[in-house]
Amino acid sequence: MSIQVANLSLDPPVMLAPMAGITDLPFRRLVARFGAGLVVSEMVASGEMVTARPSVQARARVDLGLGSAGLTSVQLAGREPGPMAEAARLVAGLGAQIIDINMGCPAKKVTGGLSGSALMRVPDHALRLIEAVVGAVSVPVTLKMRLGWDSDCLNAADLARRAAAAGVRMVVVHGRTRMQFYKGRADWAAIAAVRGAVTIPVVANGDIASVAAARQALAQSGAAGVMVGRGAQGAPWRLAEIAHALHGTPAPAVPYGAARADLVAEHYEAMLGFYGRDLGLRIARKHLGWYADVAGAEPGLRPALMVAPDPAAALALIRSGFAATDAQSEALAEARAEADAERAAA
Ligand SMILES: Cc1cc2nc3c(=O)[nH]c(=O)nc-3n(C[C@H](O)[C@H](O)[C@H](O)COP(=O)(O)O)c2cc1C
Q1: pLDDT class of 338 with cuts at 50, 70, 90
Q2: Binding-site residues for FMN, please?
Q3: What's the distance, CA 15 to chain centroid?
Q4: Cα 88 to Cα 168: distance, rounded to the nearest angstrom
Q5: Of all protein residues, whose CA lies closest to atom 13 belonging to ligand 1?
Q6: Does residue 116 line the site of ligand 1, with CB under 6 A?
Q7: What is the rounded distance in angstroms from the CA atom of residue 148 to the CA atom of residue 191?
């Protein structure tokens, strides 16, 4: 089972969501290694990209690492059709296999600039932007959006229909409105309206962090695939687990004990190499915290990892702290996290 996007086969139809500050090259590489039909870069600000000096643009080639982390889509954020088209041309030239347009980001920093989900409030303008990007590149263009701006403006289906007519090849819908930010629960059933409006593939997104959730999201939305964001944090094998259960791909070898410590250490060192020591130390902390949460590690491990003063100290903690991880403590931690999420949503 796969999703066909122009000449590309997204197989399995389980994808890693774009997450600014998280889905960098080291993380995408890990997720792709376990197995994913597609991974999406952090959003790239189109205006900054086109005005950057050539040396900075060349750096983007390294940062994006296109071609080295499985089938990769580069997500662009922006407001103006011209710079968006120019940025699309640039990243396609760097090797992006798919260009995704961000119409879902709720952050004030982004919607304040009238990009991200704010584009859903101005559909005619959004269409001009989509047409400019589609016209600028020969690689497929996809669109990621929310259900709408708020509960009075649920226009995802209409926008998807117009986007498909303009040449967009796949739509991803996060089952929340912009005004919900990340509160409550994603409404997978509401995505069915988008599914009914277009013949291009529709992908369901939002709160899909387990096999059971993926099954339910697909059943309720009728979507062709799922996109997983936060569920992959601290668990880069999560997409492969879902793909195995739903689509019969090989089961990922989820590492426990010393193997989990090895994986976390490998990711940690990859981040230090990618960002350099000082920035790497800081950026790695959130990933280490998620690894500790997911593993159901000893309660002292997380805070100790957060204050580890240097890489050697962090690596020693990783070795000792994750060596005792097992499937049972992980299952307990997962049940606890699910109960917490349900309480928070209630
Ligand atoms: C920290 C963070 C950063 C994100 N950055 C982006 C982004 O750059 N572009 C985007 O379209 N969505 C972004 N998102 C939204 C996710 O792609 C996804 O739609 C959302 O988290 C819901 O899916 P999930 O419940 O599986 O995480 C971000 C979400 C988080 C939590």
Answers
A1: confident
A2: 18-20, 75, 144, 174, 229-230
A3: 7
A4: 14
A5: 19
A6: no
A7: 11
Instruction: Among 3.40.50.150, 3.30.70.20, 3.20.20.70, 3.40.50.1000, name the CATH number for the domain at 3-247.
Output: 3.20.20.70
Model pLDDT, residue 167: 98
Task: Give distance in angstroms: CA of 146 to centre of ligand 1.
Answer: 11
Q: Is the CB of 323 under 6 A from ligand 1?
A: no
- With cut-offs at 50, 70 and 90, classify the pLDDT of residue 106: confident
Predicted pLDDT at 300 = 95
What is the best residue among 14, 19, 48, 242 to mutate for testing ligand 1's pocket, by most ligand atoms within 8 Å of CB? 19
Does the beta carbon of 226 sit less than 6 angstroms from any atom of ligand 1?
no
Alpha carbon distance 220, 187 (integer Å): 9
Residues in contact with 179: Cβ distance below 8 Å, sequence separation at least 6, in sequence order: 106, 149, 150, 151
**pLDDT score recorded for residue 313:** 97
For residues 247 and 65, which has the higher predicted lDDT (pLDDT)? 247
